[in-house]
Amino acid sequence: MSSTAMKHLKHLAVTIGPRGSTTPQERQAAEYARQQFEALGLQTHWETFSAPKTGWRPFSVAALFYLLAAIIDLSSVRWLAFALIPIYLIVLGLTWQPDTTPYTQGANDNGSGASIVLSLAERLAHSPLKQIEVWVLCSGCEEVGSHGAQAFVKRHRSELTGLAAINIDNVGGQGAGVCYISVEGMVISYKAALRQSGPNGPTSTLTPGPSQPCTPTPPV
């Protein structure tokens, strides 16, 4: 990671610190990004949107509701409700834990990605690409459902014809290189890409995955 990116990363992760969704610290990070863009002479836009503080609480509430329903169920299938109690407890534990754990400094996820974006913005400001219009986006509330990015796309959909988007996330780590996947989504979209495979493999590039090593690349 370049010295410029490291400077941004230290400010985000150390000076500002943990930047949970909808927190004052997340807003500070957004203000910092805007200041960097304006210092480069770039035209900036500040857009607001609505987002929840957590993406897990609805699942916790649902698990708690079903757990209570199982305990007080007086029907003939009460045995089935009792049999499912361990599952409800597991879901409750898994979804409650993220909301009760203190935020980390977020150096890798996703201070590293944001820092690279700010560094690339500086490079592009000094050496613009020919015949290509570049928008640099620092979106918020990604951890609770990418609400910032979704709001941006919804608001600017008519302007994004022919868009080629690059999302930069979790790019820190000693010896880290470039790993990318060309299909958005986690499981369903990945399987869809595999189903579209031709005789020589998937038509969409999926390389390399988490289980494969990445080749270190020169710093940006």
Describe the structure.
It is a single chain. With 220 residues, the protein is mainly alpha-helical. The chain folds into two domains: 170 residues, no CATH class; 47 residues, no CATH class. Helices cover 48% and strands 2% of the residues. The chain contains eight helices and two strands. A two-stranded antiparallel ribbon has the order 1-2. Helix 1 crosses helix 6 and helix 3 runs antiparallel to helix 5. The radius of gyration is 22 Å and the shape is elongated. It starts with a helix and ends in a 13-residue tail after the last strand. The C terminus is likely disordered.
Q: Which key phrases capture this entry?
A:
220 residues; single chain; two-stranded antiparallel sheet; mainly alpha; disordered C terminus
Spatial strand order of the main sheet: 1-2
Helix fraction, binned, reads 40-55%
Indicate the low-confidence ranges by residue numbers.
187-194, 196-220
Task: Give the biggest beta sheet.
Answer: 2 strands, antiparallel
Q: What is the terminal-to-terminal distance?
A: 7 Å
Shape: elongated
Look at the helices and sheets and give the structural class. mainly alpha
Q: How much of the polypeptide forms β-strand, as a percent range?
A: under 5%
Count the strands?
A: 2
Rg over alpha carbons: 22 Å
- The overall pLDDT, averaged over residues, is 79
Order of SSEs, N→C?
Answer: HHHHHHHEHE
Number of domains: 2
The number of distinct helices, counting runs of at least 4 residues, comes to 8
